[in-house]
Amino acid sequence: MEYHNPVLLKETVDGLNIKEGGVYVDVTFGGGGHSREILKRLGDKGKLFAFDQDADALENTLEDDRFVLIHENFRFIKRFLRFYGVKKVDGILADFGVSSHQFDVAERGFSTRFEADLDMRMNQQNKLSAFHVVNEYTEEQIKDVLLQYGELRSAPAMASVIVASRVVEPIKTSEQLKGVLKKFLPPKHENKVLAQIYQAIRIEVNQEIEALKEFLLQTPDLLKKGGRLSVISYHSLEDRLVKRFIRNGMFEGEPEKDVFGNFEVPLKKVGGLIVPTKEEVKINNRSRSAKLRIAGKL
């Protein structure tokens, strides 16, 4: 199964500060690039658990006694690690990008480059697909999805056009959706706007924001003292949540301060924001929007 090189490979794994006998988790296994790098740095007594909800990723499983691949969404990380008798780990890695494989397989419906059925499910067992969002959500719900997850100012008008068009016939494919929204796609920025539309629908289909929040909230409990969290985000919605959680231990508002103006947070930022070099972006264009943040358990 063809997967491209993982983004910020060295930097992300370096961020885990790997101990030879440690226990680590790669919650976004994909093609296994990050996992392979972690295993290279682990000793015989080390252990690596990986998560991936996409059945295609299971074909990349690694034959290594120190490795276990769990076919589940990372939002259930605590529950499934407990099943293996693991309550605390030394490091957790997450790369929240859609895998190159998912983009490159036309029938999965993730890419604006291909004619495909509206699908976009990372877990093929899920009932909710892009078709359901486009054809069964109310106008208000579609507007909210496009506004919140795509940050599209034309969201109300787009939602209205989608609902009017599907009355005539269901919108089944990516080309049909593109045709319905043609007037919102200026020739110079067509790909950019389409990418925002696809991103919004994909996030809704896969409940990505809810899964990210649930995952982050479990990490302080799972990490041993001094353990590391290494996270790559690709759009501002995700990065904002990761940044706020590391800084404040919460996603909104400010934590309660004591009389001296201090507040306690479970994680502490390690280093600054890391982004790909120009060389990496040249080799892998999909890395251009990647942002890596690293935190340590206090």
UniProtKB/TrEMBL annotation:
Task: Please tell me whether the keyword Nucleotide-binding is annotated for this protein.
Answer: no
Name the major location: cytoplasm
Q: In the UniProt record, which is one GO cellular component term?
A: cytoplasm
Q: Where does S-adenosyl-L-methionine bind?
A: G32, G33, H34, D52, F74, D95, Q102
Q: List keywords of the entry alphabetically.
A: Cytoplasm, Methyltransferase, rRNA processing, S-adenosyl-L-methionine, Transferase
Top enzyme class, one word, equals: transferase
In the Enzyme Commission scheme, what number(s) does this protein have? 2.1.1.199
A biological process term (GO) from this entry? rRNA base methylation
Query: What family is reported?
Result: Belongs to the methyltransferase superfamily. RsmH family.
What is this protein for, i.e. what is its function? Specifically methylates the N4 position of cytidine in position 1402 (C1402) of 16S rRNA.
Q: What name does UniProt use for this protein?
A: Ribosomal RNA small subunit methyltransferase H
Give the originating organism. Bizionia arctica
